[in-house]
Design a protein that fits this description.
Elements: E1 2-6, H1 11-22, E2 26-31, H2 34-37, E3 45-48, E4 66-69, H3 82-105, E5 112-118, E6 129-130, H4 140-153, E7 161-167, E8 169-171, H5 176-186, E9 199-200, E10 202-204, H6 205-217, E11 223-227, E12 233-234, H7 235-246, H8 256-263, H9 266-270, E13 275-276, H10 279-284, H11 293-301
Parallel strand pairs: 1-2, 1-4, 2-3, 4-5, 5-7, 6-13, 7-11, 8-10
Antiparallel strand pairs: 9-12
Helix pairs in contact: 1-6, 3-4, 7-11
Length: 302
């Protein structure tokens, strides 16, 4: 399979590149930093470009079998201000707009677009189960995700199948949320965030890669897809389980107000409750490698 890929140097992107190369796929990777992208493996075709701007890079979509668009500024990478909020929007919405323009202009269109999205689409919903038919929320991240998916959906007006990957918190010791938690928890200083009663949607990185491959190959999969493990747990359960796997106490709560002081606006989303369910993945027949939290954490950390 010939795949056009963005976000290849990110946490999931690097895992995905290794997986697809092992399957014999041909990859065209677009990155702001060509030098960094070229370290991903031999035989990758690297194009240096800014995805938020139109350019010759868009011609490389023509003739590809699939497009996987994972690029976007990290939501938790910096404290939010006006400039960074704009970057969060542009790096998702404008890049997706340009990619879909390239798909729609191609003489030989890709048969499928897998576009990253996020469970932030749903906003804070307490303990209400959220399958893919649940409505969008109305906070900043929810509105951003709606814009993001709206751009991706334009590719579906032609012959391209479109999947919006609503990705939960990805568990990977190399980085992201778990990578930031581990030093604190290993010191025995971890604990629930806020009340701890909020649901914490999670997924092992292997199942992110697995669901991407499943969606690529399964023509019955289209539209939004919750990329989340079936084991819906609260933040308190998550932190207790992480402490148990690390053989460390995890009882020191972090008040919501302290989170707001420490990380600003992002703090309100950290304690938002989202009971996201893997309805479409399970119905389509995907078998999770890690459908329960404790075995997932044991695999990652032991």
């Amino acid at each position: 399979m010939r795949i056009f890929l963005t976000g290849a140097t990110g946490l999931i992107g690097r895992r995905l590149v290794a997986d697809r190369l092992s399957r014999g796929d041909t990859l065209t990777v677009v990155s702001r930093d060509a030098g960094r992208a070229q370290t991903l493996g031999a035989g990758i075709d690297v194009v240096e470009a800014d995805l938020t701007r139109s350019g010759d890079w868009q011609k490389r979509v023509d003739g590809c079998d699939a497009v996987i668009h994972l690029a976007g500024a990290g939501v938790g990478d910096r404290r939010w201000n006006t400039a960074y909020r704009k970057l969060l929007v542009d790096s998702r919405v404008e890049s997706t707009r340009r990619i879909v323009d390239a798909i729609n202009d191609a003489d030989l269109r890709p048969s499928v677009l897998l576009n990253a999205s996020a469970v932030g689409y749903y906003g804070a919903c307490g303990d209400t189960p959220l399958d893919e038919s649940a409505p969008a929320g109305d906070d900043f991240l929810a509105r951003l995700t709606v814009q993001w998916e709206t751009q991706a959906a334009r590719a579906g007006r032609g012959s391209t199948r479109v999947i919006m990957l609503r990705i939960a918190v990805v568990l990977d010791p190399r980085g992201a949320a778990l990578g930031k938690m581990l030093p604190v928890f290993r010191l025995g200083l971890g604990g629930p965030l806020g009340s701890g009663r909020q649901y914490f949607p999670w997924i092992h990185w292997r199942d992110v890669i697995g669901l991407i491959g499943f969606a690529l190959d399964n023509e019955s999969v289209s539209g939004p897809l919750n990329v989340v493990a079936p084991d819906a747990v609260t933040n308190r359960v998550f932190t207790k389980t992480l402490g148990r796997v690390l053989h460390r106490p995890a009882v020191l709560p972090v008040p919501a107000i302290m989170l707001r002081l420490a990380i600003g606006e992002m703090g309100r989303y950290v304690v938002a409750s989202q009971r996201v369910v893997a309805e479409r993945a399970l119905r389509a027949g995907y078998t999770f490698a890690f459908d329960r939290l404790q075995p997932a954490l044991e695999d990652l950390l032991q």
